[in-house]
Amino acid sequence: MLWVPQKGILRVQHNLGGVGTQTPGTSVTTGAAAATKGTAVQLIAATSFDAYWITVMASNYGLAATTAQGCLDILIGAATEEVLIPNLLMGFCGGSSVLGEGYKQWNFPLYIPAGSRLAAQAAGDRLSTAFYVGVILYGGSGYPPFRVGSKVTTYGITTVPAGTDVAAGYSGGEGAWVQIAATTSEDHFAFHPSFHPTDGDTTLTPSKVCFIDMGIGTVTEELMGGYEQSFIYRYGSGELCDGPLQGFPVFQDVPSGTRLVARISMSGATDTGEPDVAIHAVS
Fold first, then answer.
1. Which run of H or of E encompasses 251?
2. Domain boundaries, the chain
3. What is the CA radius of gyration of the chain?
4. What pLDDT digit, counting tens, does each position of 263-280 carry?
5. Is the pTM value of this prediction over 0.70?
6. What are the φ/ψ torsions at residue 82 (nearest 5 degrees)?
7. pLDDT digits (tens, 9 = 90+) for 20-29
8. Alpha helices, DSSP H only, in the chain?
9. C-alpha dihedral sign at 150, 213, 105, 273
10. Looking at domain 11-16+23-139, does it have CATH number 2.60.120?
11. Is there a shared CATH topology between the 11-16+23-139 domain and the 152-282 domain?
């Protein structure tokens, strides 16, 4: 029998709605304490097909003159949900398309079986505050033309909702590598960063652009994937932050026990404190 390969991903499912809106996705409310996740909220009741890729979007959490770090979990399963993607740094995310005031996004090659329920929960500096979470699933019949995993591990979270402070290079300078994880807990093959401004900063410098690279290794750190990834985040007016503009993950086989690092270059001058980074790794 002749087997004819499928021609890639065929179907799309999302919770963004069918008409234009400034609040795409589902309303999710942060917990009543900064380090406590709020109640899980359903995003999709049952996925319509086997999905091999997920895009996550977060918007409408940042507020002028207000510190707004936050951590978002994507969950899978029924009322006893399991965490599929933990602690995405959604802090300071905006809600418009103005420079630096849009949504944050993440992309992961993950297998999500048909019929799965997806939900979200979050914690943040802004307590008991609603924001919006969108998910877009890609999949369908056949097999994906790329490797997919079953879960995401997040490195670099200190106390929710904070990541790891990374001293940036400012005014176009390149910062030094900063350790995000001393050792990975298992083998990984795809990586995506998270970023948000420092906790307590209520006067972000608008129109500033941040470039993030991820790396591996010890004193002689190497760029992950062998190239500068430059995940680009932007600061807008009203203490908002969006990105990355380049949202595709870095694919590289990285064994368990590997040190993960990150570095930042900023286009503008120093803000109060240092921004936070986490690294999400697929296995």
1. strand 250-254
2. 11-16+23-139, 152-282
3. 18
4. 999 998 777 778 999 999
5. yes
6. -105, 150
7. 888 899 999 9
8. none
9. positive
10. yes
11. yes
